[in-house]
């Protein structure tokens, strides 16, 4: 992951300089904007791998910048907010941001979250070729990505759109453990603002449809204290 470019938009010079200093220590290339309009201009003239936006900025705030960026790009976006109210945090995520952090912040926490967002973004890019496959197959289970159908033991199982997306995401990462928050952001994206109970409900419904015994699941297993993972035997003979 060389030549990673990050755009930071914040009207506080101290914040901009602090983030730039520490991110450049991590070998990232950093550009700075003092308001939302300047951030959009910079973004459209260069390729960036991450955008950090202050929630409150002159001329155009971070929320509006995020909305505009989301019409054309899926680049990871982190929101900075000085407000510690839950509504502000949810609003930041609800309009397409991938993460938020509240001021005053620990610079080391910011760096860790930046690395996580960039790593996740690169993983998604590398998975594109995998997801171009028409079928995801395991012994006893076939997911058809072209016509959005699930077949178990030669029987087609009806799923809702979100159930299918949840199963597809988990089955595309066999044996990888995901928290409820990670599943929510990857499957529901930025279209909804709900708590992680949404994920639990969909997991429960999905298990009832695909598991022979939903109380003792074979495919979607709980990793206690962390989240869920998909387990399936390869369909190769």
3D structure, described in words:
The protein is of the alpha/beta class and 237 residues long. It folds into two domains: 124 residues, 3-Layer(aba) Sandwich (Rossmann fold), CATH 3.40.50; 98 residues, Winged helix-like DNA-binding domain superfamily/Winged helix DNA-binding domain (Arc Repressor Mutant, subunit A, Orthogonal Bundle). 41% of the residues lie in helices and 20% in strands. The chain contains eight helices and eleven strands. The strands form three sheets. It has a five-stranded parallel beta sheet, sandwiched between helices. Helix 2 runs parallel beside helix 3, helix 6 crosses helix 7 and helix 7 packs across helix 8. It is found in: Cytoplasm. It holds the Pfam family Trans_reg_C. This is Response regulator transcription factor. Keywords: DNA-binding, Phosphoprotein, Transcription, Transcription regulation, Two-component regulatory system.
Kindly list the characteristics that best describe this protein.
11 strands, Response regulator transcription factor, Sig_transdc_resp-reg_C-effctor, 2 domains, Rossmann fold, 8 helices, alpha/beta, 4-stranded antiparallel beta sheet, phosphoprotein, 5-stranded parallel beta sheet, Arc Repressor Mutant, subunit A, elongated
Classify the helix fraction into a percent range. Answer: 40-55%
CATH architecture grouping of the largest domain: 3-Layer(aba) Sandwich
Strand fraction: 15-25%
Q: How many discrete domains?
A: 2
Catalogue the unreliable spans.
none
The shape is: elongated
The profile of the biggest β sheet is: 5 strands, parallel
Overall mean confidence score, pLDDT: 84
CATH superfamily of the largest domain: Response regulator
Main location: cytoplasm
Modified residues (4-aspartylphosphate): 54
Keywords: DNA-binding, Phosphoprotein, Transcription, Transcription regulation, Two-component regulatory system
Organism: Oceanobacillus jeddahense
């Amino acid at each position: 992951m060389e030549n990673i470019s990050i755009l930071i938009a914040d009207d506080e010079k101290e914040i901009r300089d602090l983030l730039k200093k520490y991110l450049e220590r991590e070998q990232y290339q950093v550009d700075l904007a003092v308001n939302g309009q300047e951030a959009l201009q910079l973004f459209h003239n260069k390729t960036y791998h991450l955008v950090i936006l202050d929630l409150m900025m002159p001329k155009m705030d971070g929320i509006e910048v995020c909305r505009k960026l989301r019409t054309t790009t899926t680049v990871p976006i982190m929101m900075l907010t000085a407000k510690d109210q839950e509504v502000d945090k949810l609003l930041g995520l609800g309009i397409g941001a991938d993460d938020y952090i509240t001021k005053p912040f620990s610079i080391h926490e910011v760096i860790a979250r930046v690395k996580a967002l960039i790593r996740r973004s690169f993983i998604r890019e590398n998975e594109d070729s995998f997801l171009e496959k028409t079928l995801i197959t395991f012994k006893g289970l076939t997911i058809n990505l072209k016509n959005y159908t699930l077949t178990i033991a030669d029987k087609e199982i009806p799923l809702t759109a979100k159930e299918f997306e949840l199963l597809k995401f988990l089955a595309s990462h066999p044996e990888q453990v995901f928290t409820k928050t990670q599943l929510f952001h990857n499957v529901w994206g930025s279209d909804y603002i709900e708590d992680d109970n949404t994920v639990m409900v969909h997991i429960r419904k999905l298990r009832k449809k695909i598991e022979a015994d939903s109380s003792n699941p074979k495919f979607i297993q709980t990793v206690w204290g962390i989240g869920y993972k998909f387990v399936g035997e390869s369909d190769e003979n």
